[in-house]
Design a protein that fits this description.
Elements (H helix, E strand, L loop, with lengths): L2 H12 L3 H9 L2 H12 L2 H18 L9 H20 L18 H13 L2 H12 L4 H8 L3 H22 L8
Keywords: DNA-binding, Sigma factor, Transcription, Transcription regulation
Organism: Lysinibacillus pakistanensis
Protein name: RNA polymerase sigma factor
């Protein structure tokens, strides 16, 4: 979708045009579902998160400050909704096994170990690791999405990686060596 068209649709949606709002969502729906599934690891829960995100976005469309940040604004609503639902349901956040293929790991067992390690991270580290390495977002994009300074994102990525290293060092001093 062209930027001018997106800007026009956003203006119409802000004025209450339902069709314009639905059209805006067409480019984002797959991204929303994938991110929701990463958090929820369950199709029904992911769909619930997407549905709630769309409802919240529709109710608050007037709060989008800059047109170019619509997708970022929408994704932030989704992440907040997913975290809120997980806390409400007191679920552990597992990660999609299929998503691990984007990280270059040499064997299936190592991918499973990496997934298990990421699941152990604190929420703030897990979120930035997922966004950076699974969604390929830049530090700036993550900062915009999470509404925090870039330095905070860099720090959380660094600390998340450090925790992953500690996890693997604890699992075995020579992790990954062939015996």
């Amino acid at each position: 979708m062209e930027k001018l068209q997106e800007k026009t649709l956003l203006l119409k949606a802000k004025k209450g045009n339902n069709k314009a709002f639905v059209e805006l969502l067409q480019n984002e729906k797959l991204k929303l579902y994938k991110m929701a599934y990463i958090y929820m690891k369950n199709e029904n829960d992911a769909l619930d998160v997407v549905q709630e995100t769309i409802a919240r976005a529709y109710s608050n469309i007037h709060t989008v400050k800059e047109d170019r940040y619509f997708a970022t604004w929408l994704m932030r609503i989704l992440i907040n909704t997913a975290i809120e639902m997980l806390r409400k349901n007191q679920k552990i956040v597992p990660i999609l096994e299929q998503q691990s293929e984007q990280i270059q790991v040499s064997s299936y067992d190592e991918r499973l170990d990496l997934l298990q390690a990421i699941e152990q991270l604190e929420e703030k580290y897990k979120t930035v690791i997922l966004l950076k390495y699974y969604r390929d977002l830049s530090t700036k994009d993550i900062a915009d999405l999470l509404d925090c300074p870039e330095g905070t994102v860099k720090t959380n990525v660094h600390r998340g990686i450090q925790q992953l290293k500690k996890y693997f060092n604890k699992e075995g001093e020579h992790y990954g060596e062939q015996y």
